């Protein structure tokens, strides 16, 4: 039984590690998305920092990326930035790659 218990603990540890990495990538991606959107809205550096944090917080509203996309679309359109949802989704994909790269480089 010990071999199976050890194997189970190993799988649980790997699952926990993978979930932690996924969370870190999503949080970093959302921060980068906030900075991207802030640049489009011509925010000051202080406003950019606050906005990036707000985008990270928006991701906790519901599972998936729709809450972040809704926030970005609403804020960009409110700031009179001409943008469509496809562009925001493309930025989300690009920032996901960048966040993963940054996280892997930091290790």
From TrEMBL:
InterPro entries to which the protein is assigned, alphabetical: ATPase_inh_sub_z, ATPase_inh_sub_z_sf
Source organism of this protein record: Sphingomonas hengshuiensis
One of the Pfam families matching this protein, by short name: ATPaseInh_sub_z
Domain of life: Bacteria
Protein name: Aldolase
